[in-house]
Design brief:
178 residues; alpha+beta; 8-stranded mixed sheet; 5 helices; GNAT_dom
């Protein structure tokens, strides 16, 4: 399956994507605000193992974000922790290619994945957390329709200090679509 945007498309992740993930994992600027797993060194084989299982879990939906101009993988996104009972999940995104930062891609991708989560997966609630220091991401989520719910005080640890995380969500009853 593929989801289409104007200049990008979202597709399933493949083991061949491991080289991009490996390069991103080695750049602390890229991974500063991302998953805790990037805080620890990962080998290419670790990443390949992870990619070989990524599409098998019914509790997660992951997509590679690719440029239509050159088919380059620039990041990944999806919904994790999907609960069919509670009809909820947690949105995530990583734009790994720094030259793509600040171009509005995060907002576009957030909208289309959120729409997929609500319209196709039937989720009622999609939530996310973002570092309080990652103002670009927070603005992108606001533009995509997410609302602030609160602050998780000192819930992250980066560069030797505790940082707050912002909790945001969108409900199907307030989702305006794309």
């Amino acid at each position: 399956m593929q989801l289409e945007l104007d200049n990008y498309y979202l597709r399933s992740l493949e083991i061949a994507d491991s080289e991009s993930f490996y390069m991103w994992s080695r750049d602390r600027e890229v991974t500063l605000y991302s998953l805790s797993s990037y805080a620890y060194p990962q080998s290419k084989s670790d990443i390949e193992k992870w990619l070989s299982t990524i599409n098998a879990s019914p509790k997660n939906v992951s997509f590679g974000i690719c440029s239509k101009a050159n088919d380059q993988l620039i990041g990944y996104t999806g919904v994790s922790g999907i609960s069919t009972l509670n009809r909820s999940g947690e949105y995530f995104i990583l734009i790994g290619e720094k030259e793509c930062w600040g171009q509005g891609i995060g907002t576009e991708v957030t909208k289309i994945v959120t729409d997929y989560a609500i319209q196709t997966l039937g989720l009622h609630r999609v939530q996310l957390t973002a570092s309080s220091r990652n103002q670009g991401a927070i603005k992108a989520y606001e533009k995509a329709g997410y609302q602030h719910e609160g602050v998780m005080r000192q819930s992250g640890f980066r560069n030797g200090e505790f940082i707050d995380k912002v909790l945001m969500s969108v409900l199907s009853s307030e989702w305006k679509g794309i």
